[in-house]
Amino acid sequence: MITDSLTSEIKTPYTLNLSEGDPEEKREEIRRYFHQTYDAYEALFEPMIKKVAYTTRADALRHPLIFYYGHTATFFMNKLVLAKLVDRINPKFESIFAIGVDEMSWDDLNEAHYEWPDPEAVREYRSQVRDCIDNLITELPVNLPISWESPFWPIMMGIEHERIHLETSSVLIRQLPLEQLDSQHPLWQPSSEDTSPVSNSLIEVPAGEVKLGKSREDAYYGWDNEYGSYSKDITHFSASKYLVSNKEFLEFVEDGGYSTQSYWTEEGWNWVSYEKATCPRFWLPQEDGSYKFRTMLDQIDMPWSWPAETNYLEAKAFCNWKAEKTGQPVRLPTEEEWYRLLDYVALPDAPEWEQVPGNLNLEGPASSVPVDTHEFKHGFYDVVGNVWQHTETPIRGYAGFEIHPLYDDFSTPTFDTKHNMIKGGSWISTGNELMRDSRYAFRRHFYQHAGFRYIVSEAPVEIPDDSWETDPEVIPYCEFNYGKEYFGVANYPEKIAQICLDLATKRTRGKALALGCKTGRSAFELAAGYEHVTGIDFTARMIRIGVQMKDKGYTQYVLPEEGEIVSFHQANLQELGLDCVRDNVDFMQGDLSNLKEIYSGYDLILLDTLLERTYSPEKFLKSVHDRLNEKGLLVISSTYDWQTNITEQENWLGGFKVDGENVTTRDAFDRILSANFKQLGNSRDVEYVLRKTARTFDHNVAEVTVWEKK
Amino acid sequence: MITDSLTSEIKTPYTLNLSEGDPEEKREEIRRYFHQTYDAYEALFEPMIKKVAYTTRADALRHPLIFYYGHTATFFMNKLVLAKLVDRINPKFESIFAIGVDEMSWDDLNEAHYEWPDPEAVREYRSQVRDCIDNLITELPVNLPISWESPFWPIMMGIEHERIHLETSSVLIRQLPLEQLDSQHPLWQPSSEDTSPVSNSLIEVPAGEVKLGKSREDAYYGWDNEYGSYSKDITHFSASKYLVSNKEFLEFVEDGGYSTQSYWTEEGWNWVSYEKATCPRFWLPQEDGSYKFRTMLDQIDMPWSWPAETNYLEAKAFCNWKAEKTGQPVRLPTEEEWYRLLDYVALPDAPEWEQVPGNLNLEGPASSVPVDTHEFKHGFYDVVGNVWQHTETPIRGYAGFEIHPLYDDFSTPTFDTKHNMIKGGSWISTGNELMRDSRYAFRRHFYQHAGFRYIVSEAPVEIPDDSWETDPEVIPYCEFNYGKEYFGVANYPEKIAQICLDLATKRTRGKALALGCKTGRSAFELAAGYEHVTGIDFTARMIRIGVQMKDKGYTQYVLPEEGEIVSFHQANLQELGLDCVRDNVDFMQGDLSNLKEIYSGYDLILLDTLLERTYSPEKFLKSVHDRLNEKGLLVISSTYDWQTNITEQENWLGGFKVDGENVTTRDAFDRILSANFKQLGNSRDVEYVLRKTARTFDHNVAEVTVWEKK
Fold first, then answer.
1. Which of residues 478-507 of B touch A (CB under 8 A)?
2. Which of B78, B664, B698 shows the shortest C-beta gap to A696?
3. Do A158 and A43 share a domain, yes or no?
4. Which residues form the Sulfatase-modifying factor enzyme-like domain (chains A, B) (predicted)?
């Protein structure tokens, strides 16, 4: 070990209630929680007795542990500087220890780019940071509840962040060469238990509704991805009594699991081929065909009764193999199914635990224990604890998702359908990780102290296509349809739909057609009054958002703020009060200049800022009466700003001179429509605003005319 | 003649007072004025006894007279349809007779494109139009005064329009083959007078101020170009007693005037070469070297005492020749000088004439008369009347120029510095043409019944560069700086300047620098408080507008309305209350990323939405303190919307992540400026709106920060 004094005990209290209590006692509680966390993280590095352990890449695509040693301190500083609560202590350290937590790209692998400081210098830096934060905790006013906006929030953020790295760094240490480590360190001794392997079985979990999402008023610290609301009815399923043990997993290995492509997803097979994997990473194949096992600091005999630790891809392949062998629909649980099981065993949340319910919170050994150690209700074992459990569900935000301004990339880079959630925590999970609401996700090939429980269910897994819309043409229309109002200008699609609905109060309201529906808001709004609404847009990329809203009830998009800085936004139908009309709306791609004849029989056609964006608008206008029912309404909204790159000038409806006199588009409406329509009321102006960046917008004024079929 | 009955008399009352009188009497007055005008125009065509006269091109670049015969009726209809007062009578005629009054391009010359109707059919159409307008005059309510907005205005417009064509068509008839015409028509007989040629001489005109421009409250019909206000001090000059007679012009011809390039402007020499002209157009060179003369309907002996009729180019060449011969600064008068002479002879305006003061209003013969026939005060002849007089001045709008919405291309196409004004009227000038305020202009090579008077003056001719700004990048900034407010957002340059001036009330206010001044408004506004302001912009096309405002006090620009339809706008400093600061402002082109060192010693530097539009902004910011005096102010306004096509990302000041954290441009200000500046007050947001079309706008929110040099 490179430090002089050893930590004698690691204290891991549950994360703090930030709502209740005496403010000054809360201040001391936070101080204790900070120091205990900082101490625990220091203790994790004590077994790294060789300096080279700090600069060895435990994983080829990760920084060496020296980075992580400095990183948790620098994270505190960077967030507190951003919050304007402290000044920098060591700008150089606070740059090199800032980023690179995740897998790096191949470009970053060149060691020459990194001149890591000496661990002693980092230790000294950590000490300065500790003092700085300690002072800050002393000086800052404590106002309960401590909320997102509180200056104590970034302190809690730093603490919980360090608790995450306590676990993830332990996984990296588990990959260091043994000779760099002190396997005898008293604080990090693994279990010596290994029971005779048990036979797994299935236990029924009844159907039930799962309600997820943390309230903004919740008393405990949470990461951005935990907030919001989401509920789902879960059909009954069976789940394995135990986590899959090494012994159970061995059947898959010995049955040629790692060499049979059909068990693997495409991503899984790519991984297995690239890694040339033949068994789980912490299994150590011996020359005689037997296996040893890697704990955090040591190599031990294979503990067959411990849970198998795999990545998602291996767990998934095991399930596919098991399904084939049994003929049953075996798979991993979804996030919701995992919660259904948790609810079923009626486990209270961490702060209410009388004692820790499983192998969790560093209260047991520094390793897994046999899968039949910790029993829960209904005969299940390890519902939480021992190792994390893989799920089928890529992480995404719940309805109402917002990003904390001090940490805008905690979650959003993982909302890419490539990061699956792991649930339940492991022997080294502490703090927020123990909470029911917490949600962590990793790339599917990543290793943590994670295994799995399989389930048997006829319910299909719905994998949401949940990346963030970044198409620069589409995102202004996401905000335009579903986002904030700017300059006091009311939401345009809502307003234009309201104009239509007001006109139609005493009319037949069967089918409506929203042409130029962009990302779909007007179609949903119209469905509040019409039996069925079809939204049509020329651009499939726009329509896709409407389809997402209909199918999933929400959509996610980024908005440019300044330069490359973006903000993240989620819109959902429920919050807009439109969830009830989802079934009455559909979206189609269509071309106004050549619209299929099937689009007819409407009581309303809304032609929304589209005429001036189509290449040949007259044909549609000339025949639109054929698409409308008797007394049907045609509502035209237009800015009349013809553009030659979209509509050749010879196809403009107006905006030119004929025989020396100006002919406006509005004039053309009279010319083309008067035979079959009469105008209702006067034209009116409706403003709309399209956001480009935080400070730049398009602000337009559409003219709306209403025509009734004669 | 092709018509059955001949007109026995042409009545040409003065144009009507539209303000005073009994409404019903006014209705009948207008009706009479309409019929008399219509009659006079019909009478003009009576000498065209051969049908072919209607379809012969009198001028190779003009339509045949059948077009003009139909045109004045169609003009009535098109304006009244536009005003929504009548329905079309003959859509086909109202298309073919609508446009093509002016010289056409070579493309339009193909006769096959035109199938002209029979003159009888046009006569019948004219009769229908007459009835239609007569009915309209009966039906419309008469409210005095009749103003621009009155439904009687387009009727007056049609009448005065026809009076213009009465004259211009007579010039075309003067170019038809004689055999197509009845030279004996009693209404159109020329003068038989030809006095012995008189010797011209110069008479002094004293200096004086000329005030021009018609009031909006004026009682008489006016074309758009007459309104507004303009005044100029005219230095004394001498003017020729007589218009230049044919005899006087002969000296120039015989002295090789048409073959000596040095007398001609470049445009003039091009014309003389192309036309192979050797004398004025209505001089008819005979084989024996003598000349005959063309009147409207006949060929007569050369009337040497009549005014020489030339285009501007010939008149100008004569003056240059005369200047060379006499050694005196001989030239044509400017518009203002012509008015100075008119004021000097104290001629009242047409409606106040007891009798017509010259050869005008068809009250004399259908031709010129000798130049010594009509005497005015101080010994001048033909100050008005006989023939129009060329001037040096291209037509432009006065301050306050606006366009009548029913006739948006009466004047603006001629505001191109290529159309010079003719003044004073000819024997066939009637109606509005007789009024002091009227302003007509033609291309410089065009023929009318026009000659000239020369003057001798030391004053230089200032030819305003007075076209309409149409640069699509510049015009939004003309409106942005000098035009209307949209969405209730206050004029931005005025507001940003006011912020600066408010800050500086108790400070030294010597030199100020407005960087990114666009079209200049902020520089003028700052000059209200600073001794001198330099406005700098990267774009010379922007600066040009500021320079125009400084030099001339006004600028003119078109704005896109819808498609190709534009509106015309004039901005002037006087109306903005900024005329007094013109001398305290100058404009320079400059590049913020590489700004010359001479720009220093300022008490204020305004950096106006420019940082984010320059390619390398940091250098300037780092050294801007060197350009400021002690306690000098730096005011930065920015939308922070960096664009890679302008500023490479490595040169952005903010809008990116450093060590994983967002760095804003505002952060960069602190970093770069804090050593030499302290921030005054808080940042504030200032909105601005850039008009794109009538219904589309950019609406941005700049952040303004103020920095005081330490």
1. 487
2. B698
3. yes
4. 201-455
